[in-house]
Amino acid sequence: MTSTVIAANHEAPESRLFSEDRRMRAVVCHQWAEVDVLRVEEIAPPALTPDGVLIEVHAAGVNFADTLIVKGKYQTRPAFPFSPGMEVAGIVTQVGEQVRSLQPGQRVLAFLDYGGFAEEVV
After folding, report:
1. By three-state DSSP, how is residue 67 classified?
2. Helix extents (H) in 49-99
3. 116: alpha, beta or left, given left = phi > 0 and alpha = psi -120 to 50?
4. Taking 60 as the threshold, does the pLDDT of residue 11 lie above it?
5. How far is CA 97 from the centre of its chain?
6. Do residues 119 and 24 touch, judged by C-beta distance below 8 A?
7. What residue segments make up the domains of the chain, in order of their start?
8. Cα dist. 28→78, 102, 116, 117 in Å?
9. DSSP string over 32-44
10. How many CA atoms lie within 13 A of 13 on its CB side?
11. CATH topology of domain 3-14+22-121
């Protein structure tokens, strides 16, 4: 999955802290169908990669493309289960060891292939 992250030029208040055995809420798709079959579920949070940025999602855009991906009619078809959502805004909570351009506490906007309808994204 590819993503683009754009940072705002000011920091946000300190983000909430979680334990290692935590769960997060996400809208999850288990089959190609209409959007009314989507449900909010508790799932494991995404793993931070060396070149990744963990974002606490504060807002997610809902686009026509999100409805197409859920129906299986978009140009990419993620493996099940997946969370739709191609754009988010939030706060950086962690950065991978190879990341130099962003730091925890920064407000960001990110464009994703999918996965944005969740409390956290990488």
Report:
1. helix
2. 64-71
3. alpha
4. no
5. 19
6. yes
7. 3-14+22-121
8. 12, 28, 10, 8
9. S--GGG-EEEEEP
10. 2
11. Quinone Oxidoreductase; Chain A, domain 1 (3.90.180)
Question: Quick check: bond before 81 cis, omega within 30?
Answer: yes
Matching residue, tokens 């079959």: 37
Query: Are residues 119 and 18 in contact, defined by beta-carbon separation less than 8 angstroms?
Result: no
User: Two tokens at 30?
Assistant: 């288990």
Question: pLDDT per residue over 61-109, tens digit each?
Answer: 999 999 999 999 999 999 999 999 999 999 999 999 999 999 999 999 9
Binning pLDDT at 50, 70 and 90, where does residue 21 land? confident
Side chain identity, residue 69: I
Tokens of 40: 């909010």
